[in-house]
Amino acid sequence: xxxxxxxxxxxxxxxxxxxxxxxxxxxxxxxxxxxxxxxxxxxxxxxxxxxxxxxxxxxxxxxxxxxxxxxxxxxxxxxxxxxxxxxxxxxxxxxxxxxxxxxxxxxxxxxxxxxxxxxxxxxxxxxxxxxxxxxxxxxxxxxxxxxxxxxxxxxxxxxxxxxxxxxxxxxxxxxxxxxxxxxxxxxxxxxxxxxxxxxxxxxxxxxxxxxxxxxxxxxxxxxxxxxxxxxxxxxxxxxxxxxxxxxxxxxxxxxxxxxxxxxxxxxxxxxxxxxxxxxxxxxxxxxxxxxxxxxxxxxxxxxxxxxxxxxxxxxxxxxxxxxxxxxxxxxxxxxxxxxxx
Length: 341
Description:
Blueprint: E1 13-21, E2 24-32, E3 39-44, E4 51-52, E5 68-72, H1 81-91, E6 96-97, E7 105-106, E8 111-113, H2 129-141, E9 160-161, E10 164-165, E11 167-174, E12 180-187, H3 216-232, E13 242-250, H4 253-270, E14 282-292, H5 301-322, E15 326-328, E16 331-333, H6 336-340
Parallel strand pairs: 5-8, 13-14
Antiparallel strand pairs: 1-2, 2-5, 3-14, 4-8, 6-7, 9-10, 11-12, 12-13, 15-16
Helix pairs in contact: 1-2, 4-5
Subcellular location: Cell membrane
Protein name: P1 family peptidase
GO molecular function, one term: aminopeptidase activity
């Protein structure tokens, strides 16, 4: 049975650590690969990225597999969450072997952050190593194929998309070949997810089915609410949409790099404008290698590439729809569901 989430890729687990109240509105999400690791790659398109260990994923470099990916709030400060994940992995001997003792490992933990500083009211309330450890422990404790909480959790706790509340979303599909492709997204963009003329989510225009347009009165009321909220809030200096696209296909590191790159198309369908100087848009790709690509089809990878972008679009729609409104000392962000139903 599938749950329409990143965890439909066998062996992949997701854990959130969420901090709210007393000035907090942030968190960390960890994607934990199967033991032994997964082939990984990354593609950064935003002009203001905050990342860690992304150079290690370059196919020209030595690291072959990684054990976890960290997505976190807190801007560059929040990248400290990866230290907690590294410590947890080291205790279990999971990482790149660097000595004769099996315990001599260096876990390579790529990480990327979103800007949510001060959105809970306290600029100094941000994830740290303990937050990262809590998230990876939550991932490890989850059952195989478990449902993934969406909305204002983990790295999506303080996320904002334009003037709307953002969050975490996830989606998956199974191709005719039997290969699973899935995505998890932290939607926190400077651009908007909503068509200003109709109120429809951009991402729903690409879902291959008829779109229900909001009534004009509902849309006009929503536009007024959003304008009021935007006027009240301080302009966000930085934003970012983060994604992890995972598959059980057997991909080379170069093929995984291509998957990470084409998955950015999924962001561009759901958010406009995208990849701005004050975005840090970053997509990671993970391949567990359980199902080989069809050697008789030289272009078999195309199916995986197309599905990766599609799942990112769907995940952004789900993130925005699952988000709950926030009205606190750090600002007010209505949710799409609150405005449009």
